[in-house]
User: Which sequence fits this backbone?
């Protein structure tokens, strides 16, 4: 709890339990778009860059569901972390960023997403 001009405010935060070493608040990783498929690496496959990005995100959906148990739920109106486009993962479990950045894809999963992700 902290005291403010408006009174006492409760602030929730997570602390490691006795058997825990650390609390993970974000997991970020990048990989090349060619990992999704060779056709996304070739510049002439798609007429517009936005078509290539949309197709790559759609191709990733099955893998995201298999690995994490959730997929993209919303395309954001702007990019993130210097990527051209970004998508919300699950119920605000993180972000998928794509476009630019040397043809890489960034997956960012927050602590809530780590808790809700599939085991394994």
Assistant:
């Amino acid at each position: 709890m902290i005291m403010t001009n408006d009174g006492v405010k409760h602030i929730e935060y997570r602390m490691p339990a006795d058997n825990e070493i650390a609390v993970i608040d974000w997991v970020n990783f990048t990989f090349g778009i060619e990992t999704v498929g060779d056709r996304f690496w070739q510049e002439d496959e798609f007429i517009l860059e936005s078509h290539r990005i949309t197709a790559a995100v759609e191709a990733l959906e099955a893998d995201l569901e298999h690995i994490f148990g959730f997929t993209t739920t919303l395309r954001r109106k702007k990019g993130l972390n210097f990527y051209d486009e970004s998508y919300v993962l699950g119920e605000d479990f993180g972000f998928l960023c794509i476009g630019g950045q040397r043809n890489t894809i960034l997956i960012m999963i927050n602590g809530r997403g780590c808790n809700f992700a599939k085991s394994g």
Notes: The first strand starts at residue 2 and ends at 4.
